[in-house]
Design brief:
Order of helices and strands: EEEEEHEEEEHEEEEEHHHEHHHEEHEEH
Low-confidence stretches: 190-195, 197-202, 209-223
Strand content: 35-45%
CATH architecture of the largest domain: 3-Layer(aba) Sandwich
Strand order of the largest sheet: 3-4-5-9-8-7-6
Mean pLDDT: 85
């Protein structure tokens, strides 16, 4: 059996490669997902934010058992167990409170409820009644980790894995045949960062320092408000079939597909000739009506009102026959962020 690492909303765990997303609801703060194999549902994952330092996991389990009973017809024989010890290693319990459980009906399931940080997570693995699936259960349970504080959050779906800086929160997703979309939004600059920037500005004359250099230092800690999206199209040969006679089919396809997105921006396109895959990078800035007007008051206004920055990075992966598009739009240049996300995808492919 082959295994892979699956990630969603800061939760990571190992799963068999035959398990794939079949159900999804909620958001990054509170949500639910289900993984199926070709035969049956295999894993359910639920997560919820909590403000309690020591939440009652038994009460949470009572509510969960009620939901399970509702899925079965009256009169169906069900049995439940709690305080089940699946894992013996003490390291697993460091930094989290864990409660194990199991139940049996027309199928059987083993699960864990654990609390770490500000989140309660429930993971449940399901199998057939006569199936020897205990080794699978233990491997899944032993691998599960809450990495909400990690610099990059892992997101997985249908063979796509991407690492996104934790400051970006998932806003929406589309998981379709031939097209995947992950759309994220960054948090606005925090008040304390804005105050710090103001102090730097007031000290600029005394210290003879560059405000622009200091500004980049602040925004690298907490990014300004902006959007980041990752898209996967396939098969690439089908997507580019209408542009095969163009000098550069990928760029021609991109300009037609994203004409609306790049309208109103001045940009430069570069091609990565050293890569095994065909890659394009687009760097641009929002254009304005007074561009080209050589008056100092206009130039001063332009410095005060920061332009929206646009970054695109796309490539055709010959091995998977797919096209990947990463887009960033915001008040800061996010080239380094886009590059990190691109590297995370190429690493996992």
């Amino acid at each position: 059996m082959e295994w892979t690492v699956f990630g969603w909303a800061g939760i990571e765990l190992e799963i068999p490669t035959t398990w794939e997303l079949s159900g999804l609801s909620g958001d990054q703060k509170t949500g639910y997902l289900r993984l199926d194999d070709p035969e049956m549902p295999r894993l359910e994952l639920k997560w919820a934010h909590t403000r309690r330092k020591k939440p009652d996991l038994h009460a949470t389990l009572d509510e969960y058992f009620k939901l399970i009973r509702k899925t079965y017809k009256k009169g169906t024989e069900l049995s439940f167990r709690r305080n089940v010890n699946f894992i013996k290693e003490e390291e697993f319990f460091e930094g989290r409170t864990v409660l194990g459980f199991s139940w049996k009906g027309s199928i059987r399931a083993s699960g864990l409820i654990f609390h770490t940080g500000k989140r309660i997570t429930i993971v449940q693995v399901m199998g057939r009644l006569k199936e020897n699936w205990r080794p699978t259960v233990l491997r899944v349970f032993e691998s599960i980790a809450d990495r909400g504080d990690a610099p990059l959050t892992l997101w997985s779906a249908y063979g796509l894995k991407l690492g996104v800086p934790k400051e970006y929160k998932l806003e929406r997703q589309k998981l379709l045949s031939g097209y995947l979309l992950f759309a994220f939004v960054a948090k606005p600059v925090r008040f304390q960062s804005a105050v710090r920037l103001a102090k730097l500005a007031s000290n600029r004359l005394r210290n003879n320092g560059s405000l622009e250099d200091r500004r980049s230092e602040v925004t690298s800690v907490v990014p300004d408000k902006g959007s980041l999206s990752v898209e996967r199209y396939g098969p690439a040969e089908v997507m580019l079939s209408d542009y095969k006679d163009a000098p550069n089919p990928l760029e021609t396809w991109f300009r037609a597909k994203y004409a609306k997105a790049i309208r109103g921006y001045g940009f430069e396109v570069t091609s990565d000739t050293d890569s095994a895959d065909e890659c394009l990078t687009l760097i641009g800035e929002q254009t304005r009506l007074y561009d080209g007007v050589p008056f100092s008051p206009v130039l001063m206004l332009d410095k005060l009102s920061k332009r929206t920055a646009l970054v695109f990075h796309l490539w055709r992966c010959n091995q998977s026959n797919r096209i990947y598009v990463i887009q960033s739009v915001g008040s800061i240049d996010a080239r380094s962020t886009v590059q990190k996300v691109a590297e995370s995808i190429k690493y996992h492919e």
